[in-house]
Fold this sequence. Notes:
- The chain is α/β, with parallel strands linked by helices.
- It has 16 helices and 15 strands.
- The strands form 4 sheets. The chain has a 7-stranded mixed beta sheet with strand order 2-8-7-6-5-3-4, sandwiched between helices.
- The N and C termini lie close together (12 Å).
Amino acid sequence: xxxxxxxxxxxxxxxxxxxxxxxxxxxxxxxxxxxxxxxxxxxxxxxxxxxxxxxxxxxxxxxxxxxxxxxxxxxxxxxxxxxxxxxxxxxxxxxxxxxxxxxxxxxxxxxxxxxxxxxxxxxxxxxxxxxxxxxxxxxxxxxxxxxxxxxxxxxxxxxxxxxxxxxxxxxxxxxxxxxxxxxxxxxxxxxxxxxxxxxxxxxxxxxxxxxxxxxxxxxxxxxxxxxxxxxxxxxxxxxxxxxxxxxxxxxxxxxxxxxxxxxxxxxxxxxxxxxxxxxxxxxxxxxxxxxxxxxxxxxxxxxxxxxxxxxxxxxxxxxxxxxxxxxxxxxxxxxxxxxxxxxxxxxxxxxxxxxxxxxxxxxxxxxxxxxxxxxxxxxxxxxxxxxxxxxxxxxxxxxxxxxxxxxxxxxxxxxxxxxxxxxxxxxxxxxxxxxxxxx
Length: 439
């Protein structure tokens, strides 16, 4: 057998020292820590694919606007808990320009990244009706959202959408909703980690059932408009970003500055609540929060209690980026298109060396190339594959941690550098040869 680049003893010792019993269940941060320490101990460069951090410079239009806001003295004053009027206006316009639906500025509320947006949304939705105490995830999904529910003591259920695409989705979804305990339905579109994109028919099914069973849909648009198979870059022109908002009034859209604008460090996003949901009065919320309807509870109670508002200067950055995108003077889609190019090259290397793409189809269409994709290897479990690839200086997280029932790993394209394609090709050739010899 050919030698793997990193000694087995180094990786195994580090995993043991961190107290990781089952590498299939290692968190993103744990995998990152093992990779960083193994790289240091061995002197061998790691190809890091575990962390979903933007690998591009922040949008300059946002940086310039934030600097100007700071220079104008904005840092001395608390932001309005409802958000800066300029951001609310531009968020509403951006939604119209790229999603094609109308959300009033009052319902567009800035949050300290979509992470805070989901936390506040979970809090609000889980308190609307005492009979509805459970959140439903259409998985796979972002593991930290389940951790948020664990922190607040809210129950959740999940199902892996792998076998329930298209016409199969409705019956599966209804099997949970008909129990009467689901307060919210959560998914990301495009999906983290599989990069599947629910289509308009599937979203219509979700929206129709959400209305029928009175559940709120939380649509996580962290990877906004990154289905690179379609030209979603033209403001106020179809095709638009696919959305459940066309099919129900029970929706919240979570729009993040982190990936689309590479503005992750300033923790800025916008939660856009439908006009009807924003003004809807739930008896349980009204009793608990002085008669307030859904939207004001979200902002003046949940967000106020969490952080007393969102970074003032970052709101001006987000407003400028949304405005430039809707004006057509800043093509954010062109900027992030590099992720799709990287995915295409990486998939080719993995496939050539015997790997499979786990989530390989969107119904009968090949999966898009984007920020993430999924890989498996015949005869290997998620934990075995993640662990063994560490010996080859490749780090990725197990699909098990995302709620997937498939065996494989999530690969993130954001940190890949040009010289690493040849490096990956060389290492996966050794991996393939060693696997063949072992079997």
